[in-house]
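Sequence and fold
=================
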Amino acid sequence: MAGVLALGMYLGHKMPGGQNGDLGASLFNRRQTALEEVMNLLKAKYVDTLKVADLQQEAIDGLLSHLDPHSVYIPPANVADINDNLEGNTQGIGVEISLIADTVHVVSVLTAGPADKVGVRTGDCIIRVNDSTVAGNGITVEGMRRLLRGPADTKVKVTVLRGQKTLDMNITRGLIPLYSIDAAYMTAPGIGYIKISKFSASTYREFMDAMTALKKQGLKSLIIDLRQNPGGYLEAATNVADELLSGDKLILYSKGSNYPKAEYRCNKPGEFEDGKLAILTDEGSASASEILAGAVQDWDRGTIIGRRTFGKGLVQEQYPLSNGGALRLTIARYYIPSGRCIQKPYSDGREAYDEDILNRFNHGELLNPDSIKPTDTVPYHTMIEGRTVYGGGGITPDIFIPLDTSHYTPLITKLYIRDVLNQFTSRYYSAHLPEFANYHDAAAFNKGFEVSEPMFTEMKAFAVADSVPGVNDMKADEAVQVKKRMKALFARLLFKNEGYLMINNTNDPMVMKAIETLNKQ
């Protein structure tokens, strides 16, 4: 035993790098991978100082680039924000901010939240946080969030400018809900509308609260808007589906090479199993959104209205890493009740995968249903009526509504790109708070407020000063669209996203078609 020990010590000393005890022992360990060996050699022998964390991230990204597009590495700096978004809450002061002309504007204040309790108002401009000046110094929205967020019960000093008055406010941070339902209101007699922007840990509770409120207002039929909903928690989507489907119907099943088949079924009486139902989708509806829309379509439970969804049929789990980052790894595919998987192909690489939506637009699919080409030509059939459906590229709607491009004239596009309307409405609102004080809810505002001609003239002068050409030659139909947009932005300042959507959904082609369809059934 002594001889073997001596021989091992001798060989270890003679190994390259043997004068470095830790490295010698590490390299002599044959259980290490080549990647680990390379990293150890780089750290011990490379001529220049290395940024090891950057190297590790690039190595991980390189590995994942050979997998599916949804297996990703999340750096430590981004983990908290991503987790907060999915968990449905964060810690901070309870304001929504917008950066306009290098000035931080408060566009929404959480009712009864920390900022609201000390008197922060929509329209205030934040000019200082603690000892840091944040006005006119190029700060970003993300930089502001880092300053304002922090553990609950810690304090932050915020200085705001209200009109010509400067106010110092000491705010105690708290737990702030991040709502996933943007709006829930009656859009027509007997017809409710619910907009779900993502599927987070709080979505099901929010959905049930919305249903309770709408039922008190005479809910008979329901529109669920999943447009631009990127997905989120699988369980949140299945819980909502369970409220719409009866019995023990299959919602989906998932399986992978190292992941056993798992079924998700309805397991309780639902709140809306019998009422008429429409689901709105577009090319931004993905993942958990497609689970809900797909289950409704496969069971012939409701009508899918809009455009073909994104096509994400992969299931990820998130694993924490020792450096504080996380690996979000695809572990399975999911299959909706008809048996189809709606994951679009990614064999041509991530660049082609990322350009798919642009290619759909260029090929005319967003304007013409005849241009929709399913990548999986194997026909599947819905569970009750036996209608033919396809997988391999999202959920194709039952009723197609094209993308409305008529409103995006060159002039209106310039106003949007330069953020003129958002800047003007924020400034006008801050300077004319008494004008808006009599509107107590979004419905009253929608009915009673109109953009006046003097206000519109003032906006055009603001746009001219911002070097937007052609404003004074605006056509009548362009003026209608701009005024509607201004009204919606004012509504968001007053009543958050619900106010904005209530205005914006007026004459929206998908919403109008859904109302028409539900009234005919």
Summary: The chain has a mean pLDDT of 90. The longest strand covers residues 326-335.
